């Protein structure tokens, strides 16, 4: 394989970038500043035609692993966030390069997304937040997928959606979409939202549904203590 410049994108045409969310943990929901803290793990897949080779000419090697600095990577970012921290060590930041030019990177990060929160109906409220991803510099068609075609309940278990600092909330994850076809290979497709003439983004929709029964249990549990304090 001949050396190449890693800075320009593989083509001047619009790039197709596929992203699959494999894991998400909601760490905290900060209502006062309208912010949701997340830990996410997602796969990012794209094609670089410059990195193709014939395995027969290289001792049957069909794929290799390289560091990101050795190749071109799309600059996919999370929009409307207050912070982004890559949780991987330098040794873990590797990309799988297939002989046909297919690229696969697994990103693990913590992020803080801005989310409009309205708690006037608490404890019967439902909050919706968007985990939007896109590129600031590359013309890209961003496609989002979920790993399994499951019901909302199964999806919560499959993606390990959980919360540590917030009680009485259940979470449903979906992809912002309209009347788009669903297939077995790609159960959900994201509807692109155009930012301007050259940049697009796509978003996961996170619905946070409060479970009122837990609040009733908590209230009943602390009631005897309140009565004791009142008598005292």
From TrEMBL:
One of its GO terms (molecular function) is extracellular ligand-gated monoatomic ion channel activity. Residues 7-140 form the Neurotransmitter-gated ion-channel ligand-binding domain. InterPro entries: Neur_chan_lig-bd, Neur_chan_lig-bd_sf, Neur_channel. The keyword Transmembrane applies. GO terms for cellular component: membrane. Keywords: Membrane, Transmembrane, Transmembrane helix. The chain crosses the membrane at residues 155-177, 197-218. It comes from the Eukaryota. This is Neurotransmitter-gated ion-channel ligand-binding domain-containing protein. The lineage of its organism: Eukaryota, Metazoa, Ecdysozoa, Nematoda, Chromadorea.
């Amino acid at each position: 394989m001949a050396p190449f410049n890693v800075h320009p994108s593989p083509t001047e045409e619009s790039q197709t970038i596929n992203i699959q969310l494999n894991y998400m943990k909601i760490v905290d929901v900060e209502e006062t500043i309208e912010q949701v803290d997340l830990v996410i793990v997602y796969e990012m897949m794209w094609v670089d035609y410059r990195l193709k080779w014939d395995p027969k000419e290289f001792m049957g090697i069909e794929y290799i692993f390289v560091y990101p600095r050795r190749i071109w990577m799309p600059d996919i970012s999370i929009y409307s966030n207050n912070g982004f921290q890559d949780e991987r060590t330098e040794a873990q930041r590797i990309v799988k390069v297939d002989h046909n030019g297919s690229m696969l990177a697994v990103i693990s990060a913590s992020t803080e997304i801005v989310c409009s929160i309205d708690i006037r109906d608490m404890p019967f409220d439902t909050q919706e937040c968007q985990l939007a991803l896109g590129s600031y510099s590359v013309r890209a068609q961003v496609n989002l997928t979920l790993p399994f075609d499951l019901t909302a309940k199964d999806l919560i278990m499959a993606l390990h959606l959980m919360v540590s600092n917030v009680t009485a909330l259940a979470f449903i994850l979906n992809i912002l979409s309209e009347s788009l076809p669903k297939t077995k290979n790609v159960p959900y497709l994201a509807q692109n939202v155009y930012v301007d003439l050259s940049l697009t983004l796509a978003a996961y929709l996170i619905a946070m549904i409060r479970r009122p029964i837990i609040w009733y249990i908590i209230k009943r549990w602390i009631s005897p203590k309140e009565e004791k304090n009142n008598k005292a």
